[in-house]
Amino acid sequence: MNKSTLKLTLAILLLACLLPLPYGYFQLVRFLGMAGFGYLAILASGEEKKNEVIIYIALALLFQPFFKLALGRTIWNIVDVIIALGLLGSIALSSKKQ
Length: 98
Known about the structure:
The chain has helices spanning about 5-15, 25-45, 50-65, 75-95. By secondary structure, the protein is an all-alpha fold. The protein has one domain (about 5-95). Pfam families: DUF6804 (PF20619). InterPro entries: DUF6804.
């Protein structure tokens, strides 16, 4: 899976959190978010992009499911939308550079 596909998948998963879904979906998003952002951090590390590594590690920690951050549904929805837009924006920027 390339970076753009992973970012798009994560963005879709995060935007789907706006829907009234069962709690199990949100737990799944936490696991997939942690894994996806961790993998993106590894890829950014290989490209020596220090700022991206820090951002992706912070996002992996934010979504990690072991020590949950209780922000409330409204704040989580805002966070999900901001991160999804950031992921989509980074896809657009990377496609412009190529």
